[in-house]
């Protein structure tokens, strides 16, 4: 399955100009910034009285890791999770621990898998998200939240549906990341 | 597509070492996260400083999205307003006439209430709001329910102050930053509000369930007098919440209480008011003069 590269011309963004090169700063910061912006979803225009939206920062982390394995360092779960904990409402340390564990698990898994494909990535992402949401619910329950698995069903279903869209978004961001914007003297 | 081979280190000692150190760093990160999680479970307020600082820094983002949320809602309201303007106008006129009459009655009752309170020497902190603020954020994907408001310590906000919207109780202030404050919403499982039925003397407690509903438990056991549609208001017992603020409407009755839907959906409320902590103080009447003196 071809990703967004056939919609926005790869050639236009990358091959067009002769004396242009990708910016190393842009190539480095785009994944970090996009995940951090996803973590700031609590400050968005949605005010919810129930947990209805999927954890966007976490979904983007999984997407980046599945689409470009090895681009984010393995310890990226610590700083990104720390940032997520500041806004998510979960007890502090919850995302640091779970995101670090997710990074390690996905890395180990990608060592096992002999084959890559869209449907397999979707399955991996869905299993990861279900595990994450259930564990996050457990952690919140330890901090005094309710213990009710039905509570996370809507956001889990939304996460299943959102994954292909986010894959496209990450693919687009990946093109942006390597856009030839720097002028080579 | 087969797996790319770029992470096979081969015989390069340096590549092997890099992979090893990255695993070590990731495991250290996870262990640190576990320790931080343990600390914050034992002392939930330990990292409040970091959260409030982050809230203060991110406040402009929240204010911007709160503004766009209000604008988006008013566009829909304007469009919807054109559709049934005529019939709605007539209905509103009729309602206004009734409301005027009821307002005069309510004023009279208020006067009487004031006089009766003077008789029993009940003094209250006045109901003047401490601040008016916008809801600039909430936790849309966590089962803990918090919201962020755009006022903080500089506006006179303190921990524990109740937060309400024009239609009902929203929650109470939990952590205060310089320009923002975190609000524990009434729908959070940690929030327990003393309530009573608006008509009739049925008292109980309403606890959140994190899904927009509250579980109501009555103080007196026995026959459950609640019916679907009953309005619950704060009872004021125990202080903190001023009495007679609407909280929820009973949705279905259970054996020893009810499940109630909150009245003030945070999604629908633009501005909220932060009220001072309510503490009733009853002065004892002066002892009557002794007949022999």
From TrEMBL, chain B:
Entry keyword Zinc: no
Family, as annotated: Belongs to the MreC family.
Pfam families given in the database record: MreC
Domain Rod shape-determining protein MreC beta-barrel core: 136-267
UniProt function note: Involved in formation and maintenance of cell shape.
NCBIfam families: mreC
Entry keyword set: Cell shape, Membrane, Transmembrane, Transmembrane helix
Keyword Transmembrane: yes
Membrane-spanning residues: 20-42
Protein name: Cell shape-determining protein MreC
